[in-house]
Amino acid sequence: MAIIIPKVKTNGRIKMRIRKGDIIQVISGKDKGKIGEVLRTLPNENRLIVEGVNLRTRHVKPTSGGESGRIVTKEAYLHASNVMAYSTENKVASRIEIMVDSDGNRKRRLKKTGEILA
After folding, report:
1. 50 with 35: CB under 8 angstroms?
2. 107 close to 91: Cβ distance less than 8 angstroms
3. Residues 19/44, Cβ–Cβ less than 8 Å
4. Which of 85, 79, 9 is nearest to 46 (CA)?
5. What structural domains does the chain harbor?
6. pTM of the model
7. Of residues 78, 111, 81, the one with CA closest to residue 93
8. What is the dihedral sign for C-alpha 110, 116, 49, 34?
9. What are the percentages of helix, strand and coil residues in the chain, rounded to 5?
10. Cβ–Cβ < 8 Å for 86, 74
11. pLDDT tens digit string along 4-13?
C-alpha cells in the first residue's frame, strides 16, 4: 500500500521588486489602467494593497445601542503579477531592474525610462 504525502506549501519569502510607497499601474483585472500608491505588501503571499484599487464593500452591523449600521468600503489585496511600476513624469508603466552603482549599492530603476526609484 502506497503512502500519500500531501504537498506542503513552503513559507518561503518571495522577492518582490515593488515596495510600499511605490506608484503602480494595474495591468489586468477589473481595475485595469488604474494608478495608485502601494499601501502594504505581503511578500509571503506575493500580494499587495493599492490605494483606491480593488475596493470591497462590507455592511457592518451596529455594535452599541445608539450606533447605526454602516457600509464600509476598503481596499482588498491584489496579486503582484497584476501590477507594474509607474512613472508619473513620463506617464508610462515599466518593469523594474536592479542596478549596482559605482559605490556597490543596489538601486531599483525603471527599465523604460531609467528613472531611479527611492
Report:
1. no
2. no
3. no
4. 79
5. 23-117 (2.30.30.30)
6. 0.81
7. 111
8. negative
9. 5, 45, 55
10. no
11. 555 555 566 6
